[in-house]
Every structure is written in C-alpha cells, then in structure tokens.
Amino acid sequence: MYRDVLILYCRAPNAAPTETGMSRLALSDSDKQARDWFVKTTKALGCTVTIDNIGNIFAVRPGRREGPATFAGSHLDTQPSGGRYDGILGILAGIEMLSVLQEHQVETEFPVGVVNWTNEEGARFPISMMSSGVWAEEIALDRAHNTREVGGGTATVKSELERIGYLGSTPASYRSVPLAAHFELHIEQGPILESEKQKVGVVKGVQAYKWFTVNIDGRDAHTGTTPLQSRADAMLLAARLITHTHRLATAHNALASTGILTLSPGSTNTIPGHVSFTLDIRAPADATVEAMEADLKRDFAALAAGKDIGGLLANSTPGKPLSVEWRTDFVSPATIFHPDCIGVVRASAEAVTGDSSLVRDMSSGAGHDSVYASRRCPTSMIFVPSKNGVSHNPEEYTSPEDCALGAEVLLQSVLRYDRMRAEGKTQAI
Amino acid sequence: MYRDVLILYCRAPNAAPTETGMSRLALSDSDKQARDWFVKTTKALGCTVTIDNIGNIFAVRPGRREGPATFAGSHLDTQPSGGRYDGILGILAGIEMLSVLQEHQVETEFPVGVVNWTNEEGARFPISMMSSGVWAEEIALDRAHNTREVGGGTATVKSELERIGYLGSTPASYRSVPLAAHFELHIEQGPILESEKQKVGVVKGVQAYKWFTVNIDGRDAHTGTTPLQSRADAMLLAARLITHTHRLATAHNALASTGILTLSPGSTNTIPGHVSFTLDIRAPADATVEAMEADLKRDFAALAAGKDIGGLLANSTPGKPLSVEWRTDFVSPATIFHPDCIGVVRASAEAVTGDSSLVRDMSSGAGHDSVYASRRCPTSMIFVPSKNGVSHNPEEYTSPEDCALGAEVLLQSVLRYDRMRAEGKTQAI
Fold first, then answer.
1. What sequence ranges are listed for the domain Peptidase M20 dimerisation (chains A, B) (predicted)?
2. Does residue A265 lie within any of the structural domains?
3. Is this prediction's ipTM beyond 0.90?
C-alpha cells in the first residue's frame, strides 16, 4: 500500500545524479510549494492544520478522545544539493500513515498527527534543527527569526516566512502545541544497516559530540637547510596527532575525524611553523567523549614535547618541542530517547520484518529534529538503510522496499503508542 | 681589517626585526642604487667593469698575466622581507678582498674579480638563480628577459634592466666572460654550524632534491554516521604517509618535508575524500633521493591499501582502501663542486681559524649561483654560521666576527687558487 506513493519519490538505482538530486532550501519558493501540498493533502485527509510563528506545520487527525496527538514528524527542506530522502521520507511516510488510517476508517484512541519542522538542515539559514529547537524553547524565537540567509543575501527567516505566507499566529512552543510523542522515520545516512544486511534501526539516542580546533606552533624553516633534529615541524606533529587520534577512537569505541586543516606559510620548500586542524569527537555517551578529550589533551602535549606515545616516534629523529593549544568550538551532549518509544519501535520493526535479526538498536550519528522533540515529549526514531551510507548528496538512495518497510514501522509505532496511552501504560519524560 | 666595512652591515644582535630587514628586489630602484655603488666602488679599486645583457656585473682587477679572472661572487638582491646577509655578504666580502689587495698593493698572478649575479632570489621575477643560469647557458636569455614580475605587474626583466640602465651589451655567456673559478661566501641559512659550535663550512656541493605532489582519493562521508571501518579517510591516510615519510628520511639520512596540504570538501563534520600535499625530498646524492622516492611510492601504495608499514596501523581500525597518485613537480640533481676549489677553501679555513675542529665539510641545502657557475668553471662555497638557522627573514643574523672570518677565508681561497694556477696545478672541470 505504501509503495504506490513512495515509489514516486524513489529514483531508479542507476539514474545519473543530476536526475535524482533535490534542492529545496528552507522557506524558498519550492519549500512553499511543498508546504502548500502538505497542507492541502493533510486537510483532505481530515486533519486540522496549525501553523506556528516559526512556520512549523502540525496536521492533526482527531481520535476518539481529546488530548495531544501522537506525531510522526520530520522536515521538507534539503541541503543545496541534497537527495530525495533526508527529511522528506519521514513526512511522506507520515502522510501515508494518515491516508491508510483514513482509507481503512481507523479510529485511534487519541489524535495522531504529522509535523513538518522548519529549517532542519540549517543550510540556507545557518541554525540546524532550528524550529524544533524553538518549539522546545531551547532556541529563542527572536534569534531564529532574525537569522539571515547565508551567501550575503538580505532575507531573514521572518521575512521569508512572511513572503511565503507561513508566519503563523500560534506561538512556537511545546506549551501551545504539546506533542504526546514524536516518531521520526529517517534514512540512516550511514553504512551500518547496509553492511550488516539489516533493514530497520531502532534509534535509542543521538551520539554526544564535541568540536575542537587544535593549533600547533612550531617554527618556519627552510626544507633544504634545516636538519631533521633542528626542526619544529608543525605539519609532522599534526600528522602524528591525527594518526594518534584515530587510535584512541578505536580504543574508546568512539569516532574522531579531522575535516579541516590549514597550515602556514604554505610553500613547498618551507617547513610549516603553524598548523590548525579541527577535531570532531563522537560517542554514544558523554563520558566517553570526555574521556577521549582528556586522553587526547594529555597525549598531544606529550607528543608535542617529543615524548613517544604508542610507538609513533619510533625510527624517527627527535626534533625541537612545539606547542599545542585547544579551543572548544561546540558541545552537543548525548540525547537518550524514551524507553516507551524505543520499545514500540522495536516491537513494530520486529513485527513488520518478521525477523528480529533484521532489526538493530542504533545511535544516530547526526542530529535530527527528534533531538529537540525528545526534550519535551517521548521520542524515538526509525532508520532505514542508506545505499553506501551516502547522504547530503544526489547519490543518496534508499530502495522503495526499504522506504515502505520504514513507513509500515512508523504507522505501527504510532498505533502501538496510541494503544499504550489508551491503556495508561505510557510514562512521561 | 674586514671588520670596519662589514660591521656597518651587521645589526646589533637584539635589534627589533623591523630595524634589521632588507628589501632589495631584483632590478628595483634600490637594486639600482646598490649596483651603482658596486660599479663606482670597484672602479675606484682599479677594476674594469663589464655588464652583460642580463645585468650581471663583472668587476676585474688585473693580474701579472692575462687570462680569465678568479672570481668571488654572489648577489645583491633579496627576498621581499629578507635579511642583510643572504647574498650581500658574498659581494661585500669580495669588494673587501679587492680593497685589501689594493691597500697592500698585492699583485696577483692572474686577474681576480667580483661578480654580482642578477636575480638570484627569483622573488620578484620567479626564476631562481636566473642570471648565473643564463651565463651558464642553461636558461635561455629570451625566457629570462621576458619573465614578468609577480603580483600582476607588467614589468619584465628586460624592461627593468633598460629602465635602471643595466642592460649591458656583452652577451650573457661563459663564452664571452669566462671565469677561471668561482668562490662564494654565503651564510649557511641552516643551524648546523651554530649547533656544532663550528665557524666555517667547506661546501662540497649542493644537495639533490625532488618535489612531488601526492594526491589521495578516498570518499567524503559524514563524521557522525560513518563508522571507522567504513571510512576512506584521505586526511587520516595523509597523516600516516607524512609520519612515514619522516621515518624513511631518518633511515636514509635524508630530508623530507611537507610544506603545503589542502583537503576537500573542508567541513568540520565531513571526512575529507580528497587530500593533496607536497613532498620535498633532499639528500647529498641523487641515488639517495631516487631510493627514497622508490621506497615511498611502494609504501604509500601499501598503506593506502590498508597494509601496515612499520606499525603505523597498530591499534587502528581497518578502513576502506584509498588511491594515491604522484606527480613530479621539479627535479634538481646534486651538484658536486670542484676538488681544487674545495681544497683551497678547506686549507684557507683551517689557516684562518687555526683550528681544524672549527671547520666542517658540508652540503648546501639550498640552491645558489655557484650551482650554475660550477657547470662552467671550478667552484666552491664558504659557509658561515646563521643564528638559529634563520634566513629569508629580518631575523637573519651572522655576527660581525663570523662575517669577517668568512671574508678572510674568501680572500685566502682566491689567492691560493691564483697561486695554484700560477704553478699549473689546477684542473679543468
């Protein structure tokens, strides 16, 4: 049943990337078109639509009883050259859920709904998960409204909300629009399900991460006239530190990555006196990230001083000491989803696949609207496989079968949660 | 005797860099001033001055007999923010040599001279050792003449030679202005003499070097969603390769340096799929550089494929294979100076210092006009200590005592060589 709708959005597996990408930047004309379609479609399915003053759209189908709705939610906006699945899948599967309920005249105990969160990507307006953050009252409405588009344009979130007609009158807050629960179907954006030949990820939370900039100061010197023992080679030290970081990530069962590295002065025949690089450390638990940070600070200082760590300086020429200085750029603590929601997602996934070996518990490596939703209501997520783990790219691909499977798990999760509520078995956050 | 002149050009050791730097770009107005002074001074010391059509200035003091002069030579031009010693010292010491000969009415057997080579630095007009190269007929005159200044200006070498009045009529060639020998006093530009507490370097040649660009292709991926074993992390591989390069340099008693590294896409939360870095490999012998290159190509390919070399992959998570591609950017074979010249420099240095432990044989790490001179006449160089090994920088410093010592070695070397010629003991190249 899901396939008919979803398949429209799935490209042929061998299509060229240019035939398959999606560029629907937040609050652009194409975002307005998708929003208009969302409102029209959900109203046609019997929903009441509420738009808040950050442009979040809540479509709610009534249940037997009054009360906050159990929501499926995600986002319609994309990266500048994104794929067709990131965010969009969760919204379409939510609408398909409403359609199935309507078609089969299913009456839920409590209302159920679908929410489209504004500007999850933070690509055009550079705050990620912006409007679920405003709804959770963790990001100030003013700050969000006044965020200016990247690339030197003059448009702000507020001016664009007005321009496309999505500046609603309802205050953006969990107090004005409470959610009973939030379930988000999303592509994994990583390779684990595919490589493990599994179908559904039960997402128990979102990894903690910390971003740092590491600055190394050595001394510029001529590559031809400076013997190895006289060098304070910032690039060589950076190479050793990055090599070591990977080893520590392995030891801690964590992730560590360097995505930016700059050096100066930048000449083939000058040993760089300065290198600056980023470090992105992630692990499911905050404590692991903290332990990694402490170990790395200790070991970087030792290596900079010429003390060997793990054989890195073996068969090398001792040089001059260098200095290493750390700056913390961003801290994102771990998010732990709600056991009730995790439980219904797991039960639904096992029921839909009929094979618990196709289902795995996972941490999300990336942030999602569910992070902010989980601060104010029970939340969990459902992951489906991403081909080659690729995302934020026109090559992003999830098979129609996997999309449909995920949509079925989403529907069952919402219905199971509704039943738990009816039976008084759910817990608050 | 040398100190009176040389001390004028030596800064106080604790002076601020801004009081001590020198910016005399090739063929600029300040280069013209220094040239005019050079011509006037050498003529006053009884020299005949010849200017060739690349602006090289040859000042020759007659000897008892006719024949090519034995030359002291170096260059008056500097880097944009250079020091007061690189090049200048060799010219001043040459003029001081003429002055001493004149003052003491010394008659040499053959003529002796001083040569100022145009645009050694290649800073304003980007060909290093340009005009000794033209004189040696290893760089075409047209190419040199048409070389345009860096930074978008329209001046060429030829237009600037005309403007400042130094486009001579003598063809720039060793055939028109033969040199009997070329001795160059120069600051070491490295830390060896200082750190070994030695005073004079007898330069036996110039290291071979090769420049490469190494391109790594892996795959961009999200830092949060991509497990270590699913990564093709180009930055991590680059870090390992640079770490390994240093080890191989240690093993080969060679030098290896990475002065430029760029990566893409360049975002804190994206594992770089592509890294490009330069590799500058140097050793006194061509064979060592070739052996390093072969070893590195073999080992880089192995590491890219995930095969451990020297424990670099210990305690790490095996990832996906990457590809490594090499490009050769520049090849400079080793230069071996002439045994006659090396011999007289060594004998002079031991005589002047009175202590052979203060004298060492060296390879030059950097290129000099003596490289091209040595292709057409017997050549050697004399190095004196550089404070902290610093050069191409206002911090460049050599003590007045060391400058004077070097100048005395230069004078003695030229006189000893003249005597060898008189005795018929010199060998052709």
1. 209-304
2. yes
3. no
